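Q: Structure for this?
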Amino acid sequence: QKEVEQDPGPLSVPEGAIVSLNCTYSNSAFQYFMWYRQYSRKGPELLMYTYSSGNKEDGRFTAQVDKSSKYISLFIRDSQPSDSATYLCAMSFSGGYNKLIFGAGTRLAVHP
Amino acid sequence: NAGVTQTPKFQVLKTGQSMTLQCAQDMNHNSMYWYRQDPGMGLRLIYYSASEGTTDKGEVPNGYNVSRLNKREFSLRLESAAPSQTSVYFCASSEAEKIPYGYTFGSGTRLTVV
């Protein structure tokens, strides 16, 4: 079993839709949770990060962490064609060395 | 501001050939990483360097070697390429060893081994 599971999709939605992307994990020691966005033929770029449980909002993006369920989510409101990309979740332990464990990524297509 | 620069962008190798993937960052970051990305597998850590002068194995180190040449540069070497090493390779850097967020990635090297 992988430490971090993520549905690869693809997920296709119309412009303006609310998108929900999710990851589950098995190691309860993870404390830092991140979402990266990767456009085709580019490197991943950090979108959002949260520490421990709770929500974090940044514009149209909201990240949620539910440590009791070992489940994290990224919501995109009013999705745009420019949001079409692969979204990767990543996690890390508290303290210790800065080493991220990534999910496989979910491919999202937002069509006009 | 270039960030993380990887060369080459594309490469085709024959089985058994060797090559070195180059990575350089201009952000004065201490830590650098090499990942490979395969369909359905996500990003898997090959090697990392917490700071200049140190390197350690990641999840999938077999068949690879690395060199942290100086603070800016971190290279990945394939001594005898195999078709299983066909992948997209990403180099990344981060500001400090214990900050668990904020990797900056390069744009990748697409390697095909035939």
